[in-house]
Amino acid sequence: MHISLETLRNSPGQTYSYEFIQEAAAFDLTEDGACFDRPVEVKLEAVCRDGKFHVFGSLRTSLLSECSRCLQPFTLHLEGQWEDDLPAEEMQELSVIGLAREMYYTALPLKPLCAEVCKGLCSVCGVDRNHEDCGCDADQMNDKLSVLKKLLLE
Questions:
Q1: Model confidence pTM above 0.85
Q2: Do 69 and 102 have their domain in common?
Q3: By C-alpha distance, which of 127, 97, 83 is closest to 29?
Q4: How confident is the model at residue 62 (pLDDT cuts 50, 70, 90)?
Q5: What is the 8-class DSSP label of residue 8?
Q6: Which of 71, 94, 82 has its CA nearest to residue 8?
Q7: Same-domain status, 15 and 31
Q8: Of 88, 137, 138, 147, whose CB has the highest number of CB atoms within 10 Å?
């Protein structure tokens, strides 16, 4: 998927809008095993001015993910944006796939959470603390750091 930049070059100052709604595979977003539950929607606006292409893009989709705290599956809704000025003299076409991948990986959280208030798993007994209070001693949870805790108390 490419956008020819000749039309933009021939009409400086005029903004053109493009919209692509495709399955994730069309944008090469499935190599890491991600399971998308809706198509990927990419919207782009581009204008040629001052010898550059000003491009603004947005991406919207959702995929099945796993919470990094409680390990439960959930639907992760992604929305990403991208904006840049590209040199007009060096480019003949714009790769929509490349832009979609950049927006996707930029919007993807490093630690996806099912909810901001997710309590995660108990590090002592492993119970999901969102559904059950295990009663484990909080001081026992990070015994590895107990030496540092003693230093703080001194």
A1: no
A2: yes
A3: 97
A4: very high
A5: H
A6: 94
A7: yes
A8: 88
